Amino acid sequence: MFVYAGALHFLRPLPYVHIMPPYLPYPLALVYISGACEILGGIGLLIPRLRRLAGYGLIALLVAVFPANVHMAVNQVGLPGVTIPPLLLWLRLPLQLLLIAWVMYAALYEDDRPPE
To answer: pTM score > 0.70 for this model?
Structure first.
């Protein structure tokens, strides 16, 4: 999921630039940087030796992009040519928490689980 989402930052960057809060500088560069981090983090989750580090990185990334999600919800920012219902914009906020919990489980606690 993270590799796919990260690739979209390079293949279709303009929607990501559009949702970037205006107070952040160099929005296109930030889109590319976050996309690269998502790709690297997603690949890192697949490599056991890197899984924990990738998990920490993805959690940091999910926290770092949270202001963009808040900006979208507060200002009702949709995508270019697409109106997103306000309820969906607000539901994205707790979704970030679920993604963080999922990454924590997959990356940070996998070694603590008993073998099946």
So the answer is: yes
